[in-house]
Amino acid sequence: MTTVQPSSLLRRALLADSLASGATGLLLLFAVDWLSPLLALPHDLLLGAGASLLPFALALFWLARSTSLPRLAVWAVIVVNALWVLDSCWLLFAGQLEPSLLGRVFVIGQALAVALFAELQWFGLKRSQMQPLAS
Which of 40, 74, 80, 133 is positioned for an S-S bond with 100, CB 3.0–4.6 A? Predict the structure, then answer.
């Protein structure tokens, strides 16, 4: 297993992702009754998304503050972010839901932000210094 000495880009990307995920999670949890009709998205979908974002945000914050990271953990974050983007696209194009215009803008906007975080994390990982773990 390989650890990395995170580059400043990786550390900042993880921290920014943590803050955005935490803020979005709190917004979805505490404003779900207001957002659901406004976005024309199911209450349970928004509640589930908000609830899943909070532990993710905490994990990202912990990673951003660590002096060395398991390379696999960083790849896991990048993959989870990529899956979030794909799921967001599926939500819009599968035809099972009909979000309002504001709902579409919200889904597309957060998917673009998550894609940017994944890209920054990938570039940050490439700039990070690899350190093999001692056995």
Answer: 40
